[in-house]
Amino acid sequence: MRILLISGISGSGKSVALNVVEDAGYYCVDNLPPSLLPELITTLLGEGIESAAMAIDSRSAHLLTSLPDTIAKLGRDGHEVKVLFLTASTESLVARFSETRRSHPLSHRQQRDQPLTDRLSLTECIQEEREMLAAIQSLAHVIDTSNLSANKLREWVKDVIQIQHSPLTLMFESFAFKIGVPLDADFVFDVRMLPNPYYDLELRALTGRDEPVIQFLKSQQMALDLYEDIRSFIEKWLPMFKKDNRSYLTVAIGCTGGQHRSVFMVEQLAGYFRDKEQVLLRHRRLG
After folding, report:
1. How many CB atoms lie within 10 A of CB 247?
2. Could you tell me if 85 and 133 are in contact, meaning their C-beta atoms sit under 8 angstroms apart?
3. pLDDT of residue 90
4. How many CA atoms lie within 13 A of 278 on its CB side?
5. Most buried of the four, 49, 92, 112, 276, by CB within 10 Å?
6. Does the global pTM surpass 0.85?
7. How far apart are CA 257 and CA 69, in angstroms?
8. Angle at CA 74, nearest 5°, toward 68 and 80?
9. pLDDT score for 204
10. Segment 69-91, tens digit of pLDDT
């Protein structure tokens, strides 16, 4: 069976992700207690269901410790198991809870007759939840939804569920330093030292995927040297991550605006590795 486990920090977009997966034909269950996962899989197999997705998060806090072992056992039993973990900056999460006026799930664990001074604040609930879910995050493909539109999140979730099973999926992601470093990055490379096409009026409105910008940067020896250095670094250390049983590796490359230099570098690297590895591509600042 194809099994997708969706987890993450409350307010990071798990409902959006689950809806996308359901539209793709998966049998979906929200807020499943981890202890019921093996029994559910057995039941679904008996009914001929081949693809299923379950949302598991801090609402089942006291049952989460056994989840990594359960995931490992499902893999040994021959199932194709993927874990998708959504996160966001604390600032973004606080803003979302403020907009929706919903309470954090961990706040319900506190006694209502508890003095206000002893209750966890929203930011404290978020931090406790991060610590609680850290073990699951380490097994997962992570998406940072800070400053990410719902449409772009839907697009990225579709990419995740469409990739074929492979020992490791290599993700290349461009971003803008002026917005912030994405939380889902395993490696971060800064390409702001390269000549900036933004200052050429003919190139300003274009992106690193457009041929004039590509030719502009390929004409810069510094850009070619940096590409070779990053490519060599990834190629050298990627086997070690495979050996460590990592399922995902995200390489984030940033420039000032996330439009030209970082996009160019990500596209070039993805093009090189696509013939060798399972590759996904993201551009956080492009439509």
Report:
1. 18
2. yes
3. 93
4. 15
5. 92
6. no
7. 42
8. 110
9. 96
10. 888 888 888 998 999 999 999 99
Residue 248 · residue 142 · CB < 8 Å: yes
Which pair of structure tokens corresponds to residue 198?
A: 């933004």
C-alpha Rg value of the chain to the nearest Å: 21
User: Residue 176: what are its φ and ψ, rounded to 5°?
Assistant: -110, 125
pLDDT digits 0-9 by tens, 87-137: 999 999 999 988 888 888 887 665 555 555 566 788 999 999 999 888 888
Instruction: Name the nearest CA neighbour of 68 among 40, 52, 76.
Output: 76
Query: Is the dihedral angle over the CA atoms 44, 45, 50, 53 positive or is it negative?
Result: positive
Sequence-distant contacts of 64-72: CB under 8 A, at least 24 apart: 64/34, 64/132, 64/133, 64/135, 64/136, 65/135, 66/34, 66/35, 67/34, 67/37, 67/135, 67/136, 68/135, 68/136, 68/139, 70/34, 70/37, 70/38, 71/5, 71/139
| pLDDT winner (highest mean) among 76-85, 135-144, 207-216, 245-254 | 207-216
At 24 the three-state DSSP class reads coil
Q: Which two tokens stand for residue 100?
A: 């929706």
More confident residue, 102 or 181: 181
